[in-house]
Amino acid sequence: MNYQNILSNTSNGITTITINRPNKLNALNRDTIQELHNAFDEANTSSATKVIIITGSGEKAFVAGADISEFADFDVKQGGKLAAKGQELLFDFVENLSTPVIAAVNGFALGGGLELAMACHFRIASTNAKMGLPEVSLGVIPGYGGTQRLPQLVGKGRAMEMVMTAGMIDVNQALEYGLVNHVTSEDELIPLAEKLAGKIMRNSSVAIKGAIKAINANYKDGVDGYKTEIKQFGKCFGTEDFKEGTTAFLEKRKADFPGK
Ligand code: COA
Prior knowledge:
Layout: E1 6-11, E2 14-19, H1 30-45, E3 51-56, E4 61-63, H2 68-71, H3 76-95, E5 101-105, E6 108-110, H4 112-119, E7 122-126, E8 130-132, H5 146-154, H6 156-165, E9 168-170, H7 171-177, E10 182-184, H8 189-201, H9 205-217, H10 225-236, H11 240-250
Helix pairs in contact: 1-3, 3-4, 4-5, 5-6, 9-10
This protein binds coenzyme A.
Residues 24-25, 27, 64-69, 108, 110-112, 134-135, 138 line the site of coenzyme A.
């Protein structure tokens, strides 16, 4: 597909999506959100993609937030619609993909940028990354899931402080908070993401799909995560991957999963 605001490249089972508006610090405008939706959807349904990595272009930013110039004159109705549409098209969409998504945070991840990173299945960051939800400094609150996902990841008190102060944290604090799993140099960020993707790809993609559903169920209102786990666990027993995984173990060889 032809994109104006992002790049998407697939090789060796990994689709790397790069938000490519470096002059605007990769701020998420309407078109970028739509293109990201299309690229994630395409990668998720492609048999060539086993893992998705998302990052930002340039040396400064992952994403410096939603594009402020686009919503500065919105009214109440438009504001509500902006959040609902964005959550549907991108943030909830990414969280619920069956293909693992790693955020490689390479600079500022602010507002919608941190919200996008938090919607991914996990995050790694380079030493120059800075993270925060500065929305209240603009007179608004996080609207792309930030008030929900930040406390899930770092705990309520830390989330309250980050949101109320509108401050930024560095990677050491993000690591301590559990907001990112690993920190590395700028040069090593994508290689590390690819190394983690390689480890993921050795395992059963159908089992991983079930695990994503079960883990996400813990955070959904009115959904019993334990019941979801039981259902997904049972489903595994009907898959070719399960036959291959258990047979390979008993035959003392490495499994070669068909992904079915
Ligand atoms: N929306 C729209 N444009 C943005 C943007 C955003 N969220 N973040 C950065 N930009 C644009 C700037 O307007 C500037 O454009 P210009 O060169 O046409 O004037 C360009 O990106 C570079 O940003 P600049 O502010 O000059 O870089 P900086 O290094 O001085 O500061 C930041 C970096 C991240 C501290 C600063 O850009 C910033 O505070 N951005 C907004 C962060 C935010 O509040 N995000 C939440 C939005 S809800």
